[in-house]
Amino acid sequence: MFSPKKILVPTDFSKYSDKALQQAADIAKEHNSTIYLFHVIGIIQQCAVDYCLDNQIIEELEKKSIDSSKEMMKEQINKIAEAKSLKIITDVKKGTPYEEILKEQAEKKIDLIVTASHGKTGLMHYLMGSVAEKVVKGAKCTVMLVKA
User: Fold this and answer.
1) How far, in Å, CA of 27 to CA of 22, rounded?
2) Contact 53, 144 (CB under 8 A)
3) Is 49 left (phi over 0), alpha (psi -120 to 50) or beta?
4) CA-CA distances (angstroms) from residue 23 to 118, 128, 141?
5) Which residues, at least 6 apart from 4, have a Cβ–Cβ distance to it below 8 Å?
6) Considering only CA atoms, which of 3, 17, 13 is closest in space to residue 146?
7) Secondary structure of the chain: what % helix, strand, coil (to 5)?
8) How far is the CA of 125 from the CAs of 67, 81, 117, 146, in angstroms?
9) The whole model's pTM is what?
10) I need a labelling partner for 3 at 20 to 30 A (CA). Which of 46, 52, 99, 110 fits?
């Protein structure tokens, strides 16, 4: 029987991610697993056309974004009733979401990824792509896709 010990839950702080975290919490409670709640902030473009931001401004914006993300993760965890009885580790990285999720999976030797699908179809899916789809294709472990 499959008994995951390390569960990665990527979050974008949407209601869909809340649902994925709740699913992961239910699994973690049953199997005494550790949850790794993970958020990826986008890379801030330093230059646009012929104007560039100072490195110090970029670093300050990234720090504020990371701090804000950590606060939002705490709020998300507080929505889970059994959170106090679970081991939940949070982390924020910057980069391309699906790439960072797959790196995190490999680095932490994750057994299960529980991720949300926003259910975009048609043109929106084509234009934006799907982080969840890329994670499913690239993951070296089981992926549970929580539908919207």
Assistant:
1) 9
2) no
3) left
4) 15, 25, 17
5) 27, 31, 33, 111, 112, 142
6) 17
7) 50, 25, 30
8) 30, 33, 11, 17
9) 0.89
10) 99
Average pLDDT for residues 62-84, to the nearest whole number?
94
| Residue listed under structure tokens 């790794």 | 36
* Integer angstrom CA distances of residue 102 from 111, 116, 137, 142: 12, 15, 10, 12
* Residue 128, CB-side half-sphere exposure with 13 Å CA sphere: 14
Q: Is the pLDDT of residue 123 over 60?
A: no
Residue of 33, 3, 28, 136 whose CA lies nearest to 80: 28
Helix (DSSP H) and strand (DSSP E) numbers for the chain: 5, 7
The interaxial angle of helices 55-78 and 15-31, nearest 10 deg, is 60
What is the gyration radius of the CA atoms in the chain, in angstroms?
Answer: 16
Instruction: Give the position of tokens 């699994």.
Output: 27
